[in-house]
Automatic annotation (TrEMBL):
Protein name: Eukaryotic translation initiation factor 4E
Single GO cellular component term: eukaryotic translation initiation factor 4F complex
Keywords: Initiation factor, Protein biosynthesis, RNA-binding, Translation regulation
GO biological process, one term: regulation of translation
Organism expressing this protein natively: Blastocystis sp. subtype 1 (strain ATCC 50177 / NandII)
Length: 196
């Protein structure tokens, strides 16, 4: 048994006005929930790798049925992100577990699996400060710009010792993955931007 129960979700790019009007939270589709390493690998090995679905100079789409509206015919979607959060914590700044925290992100798509394994293996966080992570495709196909970002979300922006520890552990993971530690950015969540 893992220490926490986790939810893995995909985030779709919302293109038309009707989809965008339904809000950010409607861009997510839960893939699975798991609490054992065997369940994780069973799901992880069946979902496409982010490098197979993120923009890389060529636009890529998947065909999905909307689980919230199964009567609507399957549709082409561009996967914009994939996220893993502790069960019950939503991948949005408004969630009470995220509102006083921040996300720590790197623009490195190959880093994602290592981060996921470190999260569920509880090796990035000695306590319970990390709430989840997501990888997001911020590429601009119109300008032919490729930009993938890994974000690690946590609860407490004011805990400088935790940020220092997290930075050291993330840099070690990057080195272990033969990735030059760069572009490590801490940005505080501005909850007021997300209030309606």
């Amino acid at each position: 048994m893992l220490e926490h129960r986790w939810e893995l979700s995909e985030q779709y790019q919302l293109d038309d006005k009707q989809e965008k009007s339904q809000g950010y939270e409607n861009s997510f589709e839960k893939i699975c929930t798991f609490d054992t390493i065997e369940q994780f690998w069973g799901y992880w090995n069946k979902i496409p790798e982010v490098s197979d679905v993120f923009y890389d100079g060529n636009e890529k789409f998947v065909v999905r049925t909307d689980s919230k509206n199964p009567e609507i015919p399957p549709k082409k979607y561009r996967i914009q992100g994939q996220c893993i959060f502790k069960e019950g914590i939503e991948p949005k700044y408004e969630d009470k577990q995220n509102m006083n925290g921040e996300d720590d992100h790197e623009k490195l798509s190959s880093f994602w699996e290592t981060v996921v394994l470190s999260l569920i293996g509880e090796t990035l966080d000695d306590g319970d400060n990390i709430t989840g992570a997501r990888i997001i495709d911020k590429s601009n196909p119109y300008k032919k710009q490729i930009n993938h970002r890994v974000e690690i979300w946590f609860r407490d922006w004011k805990d400088d010792s935790f940020k220092d520890l997290l930075q050291a552990r993330v840099e070690k993971l990057m080195k272990d993955c033969d990735i030059t530690p760069k572009d490590l950015i801490f940005s505080q969540n501005d909850y007021s931007k997300w209030q309606k």
